[in-house]
What we know:
The protein is built from 37 helices and no strands. Helices cover 68% and strands 0% of the residues. Among the domains are: 592-767, no CATH class; 773-1009, no CATH class. The protein is mostly helical. It has helices at residues 97-103, 106-109, 115-119, 130-160, 168-173, 179-191, 214-229, 240-256, 271-294, 300-303, 307-325, 350-366, 374-389, 395-408, 419-426, 434-447, 451-460, 463-479, 483-499, 503-512, 522-538, 542-557, 566-579, 593-619, 626-630, 639-647, 651-662, 671-685, 688-701, 715-723, 735-752, 756-766, 769-881, 887-947, 953-986, 991-997, 1001-1081. It comes from Babesia ovata. Keywords: Coiled coil. This is M repeat containing protein, putative. Residues 773-937, 973-1063 form a coiled coil.
Amino acid sequence: MGRDVGYSNLDRGGFASLTTQPSANDNMYGYTARNDYLRNDSVKNVDGKADIRGGDYRPGAGLTYGSTLNYVNGGEAAKSGSVAFDPYRKPSIWEDCATFSREASSDVLGRHELQKFEHNPYRSRYLNTPECEGLVTKHCQRLLHSYYGRADALSTSAVSGVSKSLTFDDVCESALTSSDHLTSIATLAILARYHRIGYLLPQVGDPGSYTANIYAHVLNVLRIIYAASAAGVEAGNRNNVDTARRFFALLGRGIWQTTPDTTDPFASLDRRVAQRISLLYVLCLHLLDVLLASDCECMEELLAADGDVYETLGCVACCFVEHAVRHGDRTALSGNDLPEDRMVPNIGDRGTIFSKHWSVLNGLLSRGVKFTNSELLVKGVKALCNVLESSNTGRSLLLWAYCVYVRLCPAELAQNNHSIPRILFEYMTKCRSVLQLQAITGALSLCMRDPGFVRYADERMNPQKTFAIFVLHSCNLIHNKMDDLAVPILQMLHQLFDVCPKTLPDVANTMSGTTALIERYSDTVGNAVETFLNVATLSLGPIQVIMALIMRRILLRCDVTKSLSSDLRSKFVKHLIAVVGFRKSTGAAVGDAIGLVSKVALMDAFVQSGGMPELMAAMKDVNAKQLRLVALHSSSVSCDSLHKMLCVGDIATKLVAYDALAGYRADGMDAGTLVLCALCSVVKMSPDVSSLLREYASTYAGMSEYHGTGSLASEGKFLRALSGDSNMADPTRSMRVAGLLCVHSIVASVYMSSEPPKQTLIHALLCPEGSTRQQHQELVEKYKAQLASHRREVQRSHARLDAQARELQQHKESATKQLEQLREEYAGKVDRSKAELAAAQSQLTAASLQSQQLDRECVRLRAQVSDLDQALRKISSEQAQANDQLREAASHRERLKNEVSGLQGQLEQRDRTIEQLRTVETDNGRLNQEVGELNAQVERVYRMLISLMSKHRQVEADLARSKEDAAQNSRQLHERQLQVEDLSNRCRNHENTINTLRVAKEGTEGEVHRLGRELQALESRLGKSTEELSVLQGRYAQTSQALQACEEQNRRLAEQLDRCEMQLRQRGEQLSTIYSTFQDKKPY
């Protein structure tokens, strides 16, 4: 909805001139199902297998996955993969990595279907065409029919160690380095940006097809290459590190080393073979990287069987680090910073291949793969970060290293004030690679699970910077047709709404215009609102669904459409009615089921934000009453037809029929009925919406814990139930979750605005009686099992208590015997403690008098230091504001700094004295601990006396007297302890004396005398410091007078600036008047 967009063609398909609106030649559907898309370019609209040339694969009858036949070149058997290196033949793009990266294109590959994507690799939905679907089917079948069996056989022999060692000749003879195989790998790596090619549906009656998939084939090829690199090493001496180093030497021989090295284990290998092997390896690595980034169903279970390959892959990445750090070769670290995307990957130099290894490692870690050599990876990542952080190049490689480091060491995110997440946030707007941006947002999503980082981000996040990164930058990407780059940023924005509560109100208030932004940014914010609404209603695919979810959250916060002009707002309302089917629109794309449901959820949010009157006013000439809306789903409206709709149909149809039969607001409708009618309308537009509603009903019926709550589950609980664990499912990364969430939000909104009878009907529809009874039975069985386990636990607990009771009885008898001895010993200890405390009291009194004098002197000194600090801060702030004309004041400030540095040395001497006082405090703490132990022993004796009072009446009187004496002594000890703690805070210098009081009075007196002499010496030094401070104060007074003169000069300059600003403001008003007059005279 850009401001330069004309709305005259609104009734003929929406905002057709907007860059985000798909044209008839631009199929941007967000799903892979076939559609009625028609191309207008030179490629004919034919079936996927009809565009196969004579030299391409022709599927044969009766073939199984894993067969060794290679159907290429018209059905003939494949020739050996060893290239016949004819010096007179035409150069091929499959010679080496650099040639492929430089010359490969859609024309060279012979695939004109990829031209549109080649011109703009940031819109993967350009690959959603029947021709591209045909390419996916053809090349997947070629790999699985012709090459999977060979690669699997070689991989099995390499793992089992049977027969001879695997060599590169075996790899070439298996045709894995042939041009046909490399073409299929490269083509699928392009198509995997949109299509799910990791799995192939098994053929009926073909038992071997269940294990054949592209993942397994790629991993088999990598395993074969690693095994061939390790050939010649005895099996007992092989390990992943040695294999990785030999393979790293092979890569150097095939890519960046033009002259052989005598220490190279592959110096005798033909370099053209090494180049072809390296190209095969890098293409398979790139295909695996794209599959890991785009396939959401690739989990740990699928990848766990290939741990050996992953360990070697990690060691190869560490070999790059070792060569760059230890050997000092920084060629791999000086690649292009933040490269842009291309249809064909840039794999022609060492730096990009280095980055590709880290990208694959990040993808494997994001899928839950566990590395046994994770410590080696952590060391390699840290070494790489240390080198790159001190360099001005290699920013892209450093970001990959940070992403891997976040996944390897999530507990170290808080280091250096969360520096790594902050850097990743900063580079989100600078990244131009879709795979790298997805990795960055994935790493930040992992950081968002750390409560410490969430609190840090929520407290320090700048609202204007957040709006610029996630809103304005996304709009810029959308206008530049970089939708694939905008999707990860929008996913991160949706996640920030959940983890950082301040983000949603800040973004919503900014978009609504309620914040005090600078006036010149108002047009930019208005364009952002229009762009977001355009994408949420007009675009197709994942970006439309994600944008609809974001705008729904924002509209529920506040109505941001009010910031638009009245003309734009009214036309947006009319278009919103058209996209949900209330108004016929010709030429507009329909979209898939999830996209339609997300638009209905957006309409529901618009209604809740107060847009119901505008919608009803725009619909008054189309559907005036409720029965007319029901007619959108049923051609004839009668009581019988409404009963039929109430009994048969999806949940939206049943609720609309219920409203019609109940006569609820027969002369109008409420918000819930309007949204339900819109849901019925999109069901008529796309039958897949009905399947989505049935899936939601069955999914909610399985959530038994929310059936008896009396209300519907919240969105957070619903997402957690979908994920099956404590983490919420992410609707921005799974379109199925997004569709179910949109339906749930619509149903929950209708439920909240309905009356009790309709709420009961909604509960009955979502929680059928049969399923509820079954769930209750399962719940009862679960409670029975828990009760039985609890009963067994109680029995075991009773047995333990009986044993403890018998043991306590034995202890009780022994305590009775020891009672008399303890009482006598305690009486003696109490007498000795009284004498020691009396002596300690006298010594403490004398020490307190001396400490009070020292405390007063310290307070006076601190006050003077505080005044000096305030004066220094004031002078520094005034001097920072002075302009270039205050050079004389600057020279005074430098002299002042030199004087302050001398004062700092004296203050450091005072700090060292304070540290000596703190050592005394630690000794006093040890005394407090001993007194506490004595208290604890007294308390234990009292508890024993109280427990035996009822059985020994004769001893009761003695125990009572002892209890009174002990209580008095305990209070005295407690009072003495408080006094000791108070004195310890006020006189740290005398705590050594207090510690020695418990040993002997004479030693304490000697220590007090020694401390007195030290205090006198300190007092004399403090007096000298006071004199020096007075001298400094005089100098400060002189400096203040000079600064006052500078301030007067600054005041005069400020008055001149005010006069200049007033003249500029008057000139700006004149220019504004001229500009408005010019705008009024324009003919458009």
